[in-house]
Amino acid sequence: MRKAGLLGALVGFGVFVQILLGESGFAAGSLRDVHAAIGLLGLAVVLAFVVAVRGSLVRVAAASVVAVVTIAQVVLGLSLYGILPLGMSHQALEASHRDTAYLLFVSGIAVSVLSIISGRRTKR
To answer: Where are the bilayer-spanning segments (predicted)?
Structure first.
């Protein structure tokens, strides 16, 4: 498996685990610090993924969209932590953080599919 494929799979798995932690309530409770650490590490993995798909402008652009959504997710998470105040209510922040997680999951799948299709076309 190429580096981009491995990083893409790692991003997908990480987002899935994060959603499970969040929806179970552990992300706001006993595993809050673990959830935050995984999120920050996830940002680094997503940025590495953008670098790894550098062969095609379409793949880089699509991966960059995932990176922007991930950055938004980290900002919302840090705001929930109280580190980065955004001036939103806690309830609005929580809802935005949850919605962005699902957006990240769907966009990650879309980028992975696009990357696979684009990679196959490039090989021909």
So the answer is: 37-53, 60-81, 101-119
